[in-house]
Structure formats: structure tokens, C-alpha cells
Batch of 3 targets.
Target 1
Amino acid sequence: MSKKIIDLSQHNTVKDWTKVKKNCAGVILRVGYRGYAKGTLAQDKKFREFFNACMLNNIPMGLYFVTQAISKSEAIQEARYVHELAKCAPNYFQLPVFIDTENSGKGLGRAAAKKISPDLRTDIVLAFINECKIMGYKSGV
């Protein structure tokens, strides 16, 4: 049986962490997001809860951040925000830090496809990844 890696955010509920440990090779936790409308940075409401549960159950972790960045400087700000929140266990994250780029439910977010070009979105993603690498994280999209 192959083991999978799952992602978790405040939109998920975990009732049995021993099942997660048994069936998953790791967990990618949503550490935070940038708001779709105003662009405010926010921590995922269950990040600390899920982080503590993974620590207690010795489950390998990575992180992801949902971006609505509209510039490379905002992407760098997001990577630094992730780093600040990851300081709770500086060498514990064995899996990469990911940037998650997507439209809001109706495609109306500040970084919607109709508002920023594919080239700018690529530059934003690369700025996040490069900043993560500078801070010592493996990174991906």
C-alpha cells in the first residue's frame, strides 16, 4: 500500500491522528493566506492545532500558503510571513514549503486571472520560491 501526502487547512477536520500517521507519509499544512479582497495576510485558524498534532504524532510536515499577491514584493512578503510562523519549530519541516495560486470561487480576487498576466503570476510564484530558498526551505508550487 502506498502512502500519500495530504494537505490540511481550517476547512478540514481530523478525528484520528493515528490513522493519518498510519496512512500518510506526511502532511502539508496551510500556514496562511492573503485575503482575496484587501490582501491582508492571515494565519490559518487551525495551523497551530494541526502543527501540534503532527508534532505529537511524529508526522512529517510541510507548509503551504495561498497567495493573492499582485507583485513580486508581495510574494516575498508572503514567504517571509511563512518563515515567521514556521519559527515555532525551525528544523522540523521535512517537506517543502509550497505556494498555492488560484482564483477565488468566482474569480473575483485581487489576483484573478483577468487582473494579472500569466507572466506576472509566474514572476510572483518564482519570487516566493526564491525567497523560500534563501531562507533554507525546499519550495514548490
Target 2
Amino acid sequence: MNRQAIAPLSRREATCCLLPFATIVLLGYLTVGLPLAILPVYVHDYLGFGPMIVGWVMASQSIATLLTRQFSGFVADTRGSRLAVFNGMLLCSLSALLYAVSLWNHGLPKIALLLLFAGRAVLGFGESLLITGVLSWSIGRVGMRYAGRAMVWVGISMFSAIGGGAPLGSILLKQSGFGTVALVTAILPLLACVLMQKIEPIPPHNGRKIGFFKVVGLIWPYGVSLALNTIGFGALFAFLGLDYAAHHWTGASFGLTAFGAAYVIARLTFGGLPDRLGGQRVARVTIPL
């Protein structure tokens, strides 16, 4: 019998339990953050493609995440969250290696672009497995009472990786080149694979399965609201670097850092509200903002 069956966790115990998961997400999501400020400039300036291709390159990761999310949930439910996270980390590492191969073929722009698209698609699949697995694993460890807290810490790690990874990637690019960025990006998820071995797994979910379309019917208003609300920072991630370059400004990565820092501060300050007040009440206030 596990500890949760004996007594519920305190807030401090829940937070301590969630910190290893937050570290795993941070290391894994740096595969998103490190190249984030670099890729638009690489596609536009080095490969010679226009803003539309830049947009598709940046969007391809999210498209792959969307298309593989159901499968990722199936893996987490039936094969276990640990396996989902482990496979997600391996795919994130593989995506960075595809970035490196793209760089080696930059003299053949179309080949390099196809390899870059492949890397972004693999990263999207890896991100889907990673986030789905970590969320189900962490909530399974702390219980539904702290589900909101678990999502808060996952969000903090994601946007810390974006906010901190973007300038770090720019620094590595200036000092050592894109190959070093790709190498570091490939290694970090493997470190997370080592860390996750120390966390107790939860058993796969063997309860009654709900049909896909029934699930969609239950959640589509929330999903559409979230999608519409996140279009803004999707555009920010894709085109901030090009906008800075067009104005001959430097420090585009720090614009992403400012966004990530504001996100993390908001999560730390208000992250407990959904657990106390309910998600719907909080969303009604925050979505218009």
C-alpha cells in the first residue's frame, strides 16, 4: 500500500515530490528552448528561405505534437508513464542530431530544410510523449488533490527552459557554432533519462477506456479556447528573431526570456488558484488577459 492510501500528502510533501519531475521537464524541454531563437535566423539567413517557410518550420513541431498526443496518452495509460517519458526523451535527443545533419548539408538548402522538418517533427512527437507522460506520472504520485500544482510545475519548467534556453543557445552559437548547440541539445534529454530512473513508477491505467470522439466531445470547448489563447505566443516564438533582425536589433533571445520569466512569475504567484477556486473561474479571468 502506498503512502497516499494511508494519508494525503501535505503541500510541502507534494512540492518536494514534484521537483524531480520539474527537473526532467526542464532538461527535456531545453531541446525546444536552446534552438528557439536560432532556427528562424538559420532558415531565413543561412538556408535562404522566406518568412512563410520559417513559420512552417516552427509550426511543424506543434503540428506533430497535436497529431501524436492521442497516441502518447495511449502509451502512458497502457504501457506506463515512465516508458512514455523515456521514449520521449530519446526522440528529443534524436531531433537534435537531425538538426546537426541538417547543418552539415546547409550547402544543399532543400535537403537541409527537409532534415530540419524531420527534426522538428521528431521533436514534436518526443515533446508529446514527454509532457503527457510527466503529467500523468506526477499526478499519479501526488494525487488529484494536487493536480493543479503538478501542472503548474510542469509549466514552470517548460517556460524556464524556453526563457533560459533561448539566450543560452544564442551564446553557444556565437562561441562555438550551431553544431555545439545541437550537441548540447542532444545530451540534455539523456541526462533526464538517468534522473528519471530514481523516481518510483506508477502502474498503467487498466480502467474502462472512453472512445476518442466521446473524449473530444467532452473537452473540445476547453481545447479550442486554449488554442485560440496561445496563437499569440506561437507567433512570438516563430517571428521574434526575424523582427529583431529586420530592425537590426540584437538580443532577440532575451525577448523570449522576458516572456518566459513573466510566465514563471505568474505561475509561482497564482499557480495555486485553480486548486483552490476551480479551473473554470480562473480561466474566465485569465483568458481575456
Target 3
Amino acid sequence: MKNGFTTGSCAQAAAKGAFLMLTRGKIVQSAAIETPSGVKLRLPLVDQKIGGRSAACAVIKRSGEEPDVTHGAKICACVKWLKQRDVRIQGGLGIGKVTKPGLAMPVGEWAINPVPRRMILKEISKLLPDNRGVEVTLSVPGGKQIAKRTYNPKLGIIGGISIIGTTGIVKPKAL
């Protein structure tokens, strides 16, 4: 059965791709990443844009043969320069916010789980110039509608989907 990749892997690749475009000043077609489980992927990028102090692109989520409401979703990342050395990760349109305690992220935070955050930090930090910082904003067009078909509303995540995945890979479950 065919594997897919998580929203976390998509966010990792999109963030890396946008960062590479920002630093190189040219369009990048794909981003190579290593998932937390050690699998190396090269994911194609779409909707690449470079403009002044920022760059953006997206990865189309693929779930392999596992039924998943996020299959085909566009996981977008916009990276822009900061004046101070830091890597900030935040959500935007289509990313949920945590409203109830007990989840991996505290109440009021974007629903971008710790493992995907570490995955993004790993990619950006090793390439970041010593005197610069970046802000990474993730978004998912249509994420608010997709989230209605998930457990997010019951869990207290509102406004969009979660960026999740502990291994980076979606493995189909045998029937």
C-alpha cells in the first residue's frame, strides 16, 4: 500500500522552499526534507512567489492510500525577514487555534503541533545567517471548511485544521 506524508511534512517542505527562495532570490521547484522517522522526501512546490522581504510557496498534501480529509489540501508557507535573530512560526488563514486545555499546544496558540514546529526549525535554523531572523506563517486555503470534517471542533481547535504528524509519513491502515 502506498504511503503519504503528513501536514507537518508539507509545512516543513513549504517553509524550507520559501526560505530558500527568500535567501537565493529565485524560484525553487522542490524541497528536500528528512522526516522525524528518518525518511527523506523531495516534495514538489507550487504557487511560488518572491517579493522584496518575503517569499511563499505551497505543497499539496498527499495521503497515499489512507483516506484523509486533508488529502489534496494546499499547505502554504510565507517566510519574511525579521530584524532580530529568531525563527517565529505562526498560523494564518485555515490554521486552527487551540481553545481548550489538554492538547499539545496551550490555549490561544495556533494548532501547529510541537513535532512539525521542530521540523520547520530544524530546516530553517541550519541555513539561517547569523545576523538574520525569519517569520514563518503557515496557511491552508479552505482549511476552515476541511476542519469541520475532523475532530478539531470537539477537541477545541477552531478556525481551521491542525498541522500534525509525529513521523512525517502517513501509513495506510490495513482493513
